[in-house]
Automatic annotation (TrEMBL):
GO terms for molecular function: 3-isopropylmalate dehydrogenase activity; magnesium ion binding; NAD binding. Its EC number is 1.1.1.85. This is 3-isopropylmalate dehydrogenase. SUPFAM superfamilies: Isocitrate/Isopropylmalate dehydrogenase-like. Pfam families: Iso_dh. The keyword Aminoacyl-tRNA synthetase does not apply. It comes from the Bacteria. PROSITE patterns: IDH_IMDH. It is an enzyme of class 1 (oxidoreductase).
Amino acid sequence: MSETYHIAVFEGDGIGPEVMAPTLDLLQRLGRSHGFALAFETLPAGAGHYAQTGEALPAASLEAARVADAILLSAMGDPAVRYPDGTEITPQIDLRIAMGLYAGVRPVMLAPGQAGPLRRQGPLDFVLIRESTEGLFASLGKGEVEADAARETLVITRAVSEKLFRFAFRLAARRKAAGRGPGRVTCVDKANVFRAFAFFREIFDGEAARHPDLIADHAYVDAAALWMVTQPQRFDVMVTENMFGDILSDLGAGLMGGLGLAPSADIGDENAVFQPCHGTAPDIAGKGLANPHAMILSAAMMLDWLGEERGAPALVAVGEQLRRAVQTVVGSGQALTGDLGGSARTDEAAAAVADALAAETV
């Protein structure tokens, strides 16, 4: 590999810059050792930028991100910095909507040797796909608030749902081919109560009929939440609406041991953003205590996506190598940060990943 990939970087707020810096360093090391180059362009956005300028996501930052090969974004926002209507600064959601990043990909897995929080928990490896541009979030900034009532509107469209389900079945096929799942896609909805979700399920069933080699089934969201805790091995690829996905993805993070291990991607037809699921943790910002693993795992997802998009299987392999290095560290129980029960600092946890990478290439 000799190609240069241009990566738009949003450093974020709070602990965002602290977990981004070691991630970029690891990516540069991988590039040097595997013969590819990553050109990073840091772009302004976030709650801190809004507090200084009145802009959360400048138009120039959006356009620069749009033409990049991929977008790496750290945690953004600050509960103390809000819009006049009382809502928080969320440039990450603005990016999803502006770029049509409809597929929110949230892997849920345990590292080999890692003890999960559930007493009866066995091996864990499934993916939750959250539609990320509409659903209840379509009402963002448009809700109606009166003296005695408030309204938000849920929107589900055929055009976006069809793309979402095609993505889900493609992912299930990839996982099946790699031996990571049975090729099952589960539609998570509330079709027994809401007409919008019956519509959602109907579109899912239409796509499922095009994949007779894969398994398709359904789960109501409340049952899905129960089964994620009691029978997580029954899932392979789950696909759901935006708000349901927002909630269930945090439950998935809990199954892994916390948000500090939860990476994510928001993927559209042309662009993709990769970011940790956790927040900005202003209470520990600047103290060097943040867990960098979710950010590093998000970067591994970026390498995997770039490799698939550009037909560069070697890049996919590098992403897998980075993911294994994090799993080695977490599974060993060494160099764990405070959220995982350890005492390691951010730089120590990241250095342990670098050591695991070096050991694998010896």
